[in-house]
Design a protein that fits this description.
Length: 522
């Protein structure tokens, strides 16, 4: 494209946006999609004359693979769409849930980081923008097309970093309300940041204390992504305050590369064969178990969710680790087996189906890529015929290893392979052990800032049971539950029964399994 062509192309693109004409680049082909009567003969002639310049302007620059197009932007600013690429299966599911729920904030990953020390706000603002330039998912929105959901990567634009001064006693609520603002996934990138400065009384805000809040929709980020994101933010900040270029190698892949790989993987005959063999290996007549709830589900009601926390003491967590090592299984398999027996004892179900979050980062190219790679994999444990906890722990361990072998298969595909009984919709009980270290932001000249979750309203399922190791030993149990169906007192009782059961099972793992009503006391 010549310098002379550039103003003409700008004018042409502005006119096409005004007329809601979409352009798409496919190799050397320039396609368009326009409302009736939007294009006249003169405009078509101009498009043909400037086709080489349009191709040069709209063709991807190499940072993200896909097709390039120009569409009217939802914010009225005429922002250019650089790349259109297929959405992943997980993204499509997240988008669907966001359209159906009354609490879309349940799908927002929100973090807060306390920054203590002399903060350079201008440098941090530049760093947040640089972060969105490096990671395309942070400037991506969705579009619904005839062939399904796709991602649209927008051209870089400064990311706002507003600063709000808030009384210290109102800080938690202010951050939670800010993070709860839903994203318009089809009009804007699902990423925003804000800086809060707490203040106490007439003395005014402390210049060396800030809270950085980050919010990203779960369709664009998972737990693994947080530390690479914070590492890159720290490097961009270091570069901004020193005036040197950021010392970051190019990313070996983009999230769009994963989306294409996933589509190819799911189409492979060996993937289909693995799913058939998994289904054929389940007991005949396997159906989802039903969680005993205090109230039936209310049709059409989205659950606001409730939260409880419990601590497994260090000596019990150590006993679990010792037992796991002696039996050649993982601690997760031990915790999960005890939970399976609790659910079986309360329901009598011969098969207990759980959901486990898995990282799905088996390809090293994606280690530092921000995106949603994690899957919600099914853990289906047959309980009928187990003779002891030793037997149940080994059985659960085998199921977990099978689950890890198919971790790249999205949960909706796994559910579809199980047939109608699992697709209308079954009880969703998550049981996770999150063993990633807590993400930390290390900005030069400031104290290390631990990333803390901002807990927002909403429930992913009927019950979510998440275990995390504590730095001082022990295990922290974070429970989310459907508050319209379960009472807090019920969950307190289940936590207590689980705790007592775990003690009893480890004390006598080779005897017949007990009822949780008779699991003794701590």
């Amino acid at each position: 494209m010549t310098t002379t062509d550039s103003p003409q192309v700008d004018d042409l693109l502005d006119e096409l946006r005004r007329r809601e004409v979409r352009l798409t680049v496919r190799g050397e082909q320039l396609d368009y999609d326009a409302p009736a009567d939007a294009l006249d003969a003169d405009l078509l002639a101009t498009m043909r004359r400037l086709k080489p310049a349009l191709l040069a302007r709209l063709r991807p620059s190499g940072d993200v693979a896909g097709t390039t197009e120009v569409v009217p932007d939802g914010d009225g600013g005429g922002r250019r769409v650089l790349v259109t690429a297929p959405a992943s299966v997980g993204q499509a599911r997240q988008f669907q849930i966001a359209q159906e729920t009354d609490f879309p904030q349940v799908l927002t990953v929100a973090l807060r980081l306390e920054l203590r020390g002399p903060l350079d706000r201008a440098a941090l603002r530049r760093s947040v923008t640089d972060l969105a330039v490096r990671h395309a998912v942070l400037r991506t929105r969705f579009a619904v097309r005839d062939d399904g959901l796709c991602q649209q990567v927008l051209e870089p634009r400064p990311v706002p970093l507003p600063v709000r001064t808030v009384p210290t006693d109102q800080l938690d609520r202010a951050i939670r309300e800010w993070a709860s603002i839903p994203f318009a996934l089809d009009r804007e990138p699902a990423f925003r940041a804000a800086l809060f400065q707490p203040t106490d009384g007439p003395a005014g805000p402390d210049p060396d204390r800030h809270e950085l809040a980050l919010a990203i929709h779960h369709a664009f980020v998972d737990g693994w992504s947080v530390q690479p994101l914070l590492d890159d933010l720290a490097e961009f900040y270091q570069a901004a305050v020193t005036g040197r270029p950021a010392d970051l190698p190019p990313l070996p892949a983009e999230y769009a590369d994963f989306c294409r790989w996933e589509a190819e993987y799911l189409a492979r005959p060996e993937t289909q064969r693995m799913l058939r063999e998994w289904f054929d290996g389940l007991p005949a007549g396997t159906v989802p178990f039903r969680l005993p709830t205090d109230r039936p589900a209310a049709p059409g009601v989205t659950d606001p969710g409730g939260v409880l926390r419990h601590t497994i003491p260090a000596e019990l967590a150590e006993a679990v680790a010792t037992y796991a090592m002696s039996r050649g299984v993982t601690p997760y398999a031990v915790y999960a087996a005890a939970f399976v027996w609790l659910m079986h004892d309360m329901t009598g179900a011969p098969v207990i189906n759980l959901i486990a979050s898995v990282a799905n980062r088996t390809d090293a190219r994606f280690d530092r890529v921000v995106g949603v790679f994690a899957q919600a994999a099914l853990v289906i444990v047959p309980v009928a015929g187990v003779a002891s906890f030793d037997d149940l722990a080994r059985r659960t361990s085998g199921v977990v290893w099978q689950m890890l072998a198919r971790q790249a298969v999205p949960s909706v595909v796994q559910v579809a392979a199980l047939g109608p009984a699992f697709t209308h919709p079954p009880t969703r009980v998550y049981f996770d052990l999150l063993d990633l270290p807590d993400p930390v932001l290390r900005l030069p000249g400031l104290e290390p800032a631990l990333a803390r979750d901002v807990v927002l309203a909403g429930s992913r399922g009927e019950l979510t049971w998440s275990l995390r190791p504590l730095p001082e030993g022990g295990m922290w149990v974070h429970v989310e539950y459907a508050a319209t169906r379960l009472d807090a007192d019920t969950l307190v009782d289940w936590l207590d029964r689980y705790h007592r059961l775990l003690l009893q099972l480890l004390a006598a793992p080779d005897v017949p399994l007990p009822s949780t009503d008779d699991a003794g006391t701590t």
